[in-house]
Amino acid sequence: MLTSICGINWGDEGKGRMVDLLSRDFDVVCRYQGGNNAGHTVINERGKFILNLLPSGILREKVVNVMGCGMVIDLKHLCGEIENLRKAGIKISPANLKISDKAIITMPYNVLQDIMEEDRLTKATGKPYGSTRRGIAPVYADKYMKKAFRMGELLNLELLYKRVPDIVAWKNMTIKAYGFDPVTVEEVISYFETYGKPLAEYVCDTGAFLNEANENGKHIMFEAQLGALRDIDYGIVPYTSSSSTIAAYAPIGAGVPNLKLTNSIGIMKAYSSCVGAGPFTCEYFGKQAERLREAGGEYGAATGRPRRVGPFDVVASRYGILCQGADEIALTKLDVLDEYEELEICTHYRLNGKTIDNFPFTDVLDDCKPVFEKVKGWHCDISKCRKKEELPKEALDYIKLIEILCGCKIRYVSVGAERDAYIKMY
Ligand code: GDP
Ligand code: MG
Question: How far apart are CA 87 and CA 167, in angstroms?
Fold first, then answer.
């Protein structure tokens, strides 16, 4: 069984929380794209954890965690993340953590590039991309330029170090053009010595591992970072991430392009949130936004940035469901809406005097205006509900309406951040 857990919206839908819950039925959890720009919050009996690089299955003792070849890995960040979890009593060893030899290494100069370019954009246009400044776009660019270092190279440092001088010379052409100090061969080598060596023991052929696990009937889960609207091809380019967040990419990014997904579970939020820049048609402003942001605690897990918020967006979510080929949905953070007597849903967009219900090209999005419909709220605490029958009628109506408008079954409803705060709808 191969299941993908993916984001339907702009990210921060609660994927980490749902992976932590659903991974009890899985043997392997695998991250297949992105880097430490992810921020997956997990709250369970062992404490509160924010995972950036490690798969969310790392908190379950019996789960083997895989970091696939589609990922970009900041060595220093990963060393820190492992150390922090160990301090919290989580066991991490090559038995429960396997890193693809084909995964890409994020270099400190990629982080520098990210910062230089966001600052340049801000000065030149006043419109930065809203990057997390963790080097993600530059390192993916290096990958496609075939200039990046891969995790497997840590197993033969002598060979790796022979590549360093030319890569450094090439990279410095860019860094100097921004007017910054060049990087040195020594500092690059010292990065590998300090943070690469300790990680070498986790590096292996994750494709071979996953294929064998699959043949032995193990259940494998793929954990996405970010949502459909942040995908490099299908998202709101350039306000996207630089990797494929799409479920169909999971087997490729994990190391098993030969395998097909059994199912795709989309994680969708009961309202909308969007961190960073870019078109966000259903956005609330002023007091309306503050109220929802406070209720939902909408501040970035990776960066602490206040997230932009709005009501549930049918147009964007339906597109997200299509992109993810979602078979069923986990609707998260429904409890955040408890305090509202009346709720809004963005059912359509208005564009040039016409009502549209398809999600348009990014440039066109800037001209779209939201159409809101009002629905009755439940206006009571649902965070203790654990059964469908315990939910108030208005909450059930809200779930049903979203289900009908989006055309996808809602199997799980999450009513709190803790592991057991959810309802199975069927
Ligand atoms: P991810 O990046 O998709 O894993 O999501 P984040 O962790 O960035 O953001 C989701 C936030 O919502 C986290 O702070 C979670 O602890 C919290 N959360 C997840 N599900 C629920 C829920 O059903 N209710 C509430 N109130 N909080 C939730
Ligand atoms: Mg997040």
Answer: 36
Contact at 8 Å (CB) between 78 and 68? no
| Residue 355 identity (one-letter amino acid) | T
The single-letter code of the amino acid at 361 is: F
> Over the stretch 348-401, which tens digit does the pLDDT of each residue have?
999 999 999 999 999 999 999 999 999 999 999 999 999 999 999 999 999 999
Rounded to whole angstroms, the Cα distance separating 105 from 148 reads: 7
For the cut 80, the answer to whether the pLDDT of residue 44 exceeds it is yes
In this structure, what token pair is assigned to residue 155?
């197993």
Catalytic residue status for 40: yes
Q: How remote is the CA of residue 249 from the centroid of ligand 2, in Å?
A: 19
| Both structure tokens of 220 | 């494998």
* DSSP line for 104-157: EEEPHHHHHHHHHHHHHHHHHHS------SSSHHHHHHHHHTT---BGGGGG-H
Tokens of 309: 């918020």
Report residue 392 as tokens: 């108030």
Distance CA 103, CA 243 (A): 13
Other CB atoms within 10 Å distance of the CB of residue 360: 17
Q: Which atom of ligand 1 is nearest to the CA of 332?
A: 23
What pTM was estimated for this model as a whole?
0.94
> How many other C-beta atoms lie within 10 A of the C-beta of residue 79?
16
- pLDDT tens digit string along 289-310? 999 999 999 998 777 889 999 9
Among positive and negative, which fits the CA dihedral 255, 86, 91, 203? positive
Whether 98 contacts 200, CB under 8 Å: no
Instruction: Give exposure, 366-376, as e/b (b: 16+ Cβ within 10 Å).
Output: eebebbeeebe
By alpha-carbon position, which residue is closest to atom 18 of ligand 1?
417
What whole-number distance in Å separates Cα of residue 404 and Cα of residue 399?
9
Residues counted in the chain: 426
Strands 422-424 and 410-414: antiparallel
Angle (CA) 59 61 66, round 5°: 70
- Cα–Cα distance, 388 to 161 (Å, whole number): 59
Distance 395 CA to ligand 1 centre (A): 19
C-alpha angle 281-6-236 in degrees, rounded to nearest 5: 30
Q: Which two tokens stand for residue 378?
A: 């439940």
Which residue owns the Cα nearest ligand 1 atom 17?
A: 417
Cα–Cα distance for residue pair 137/5, rounded to 1 Å = 23
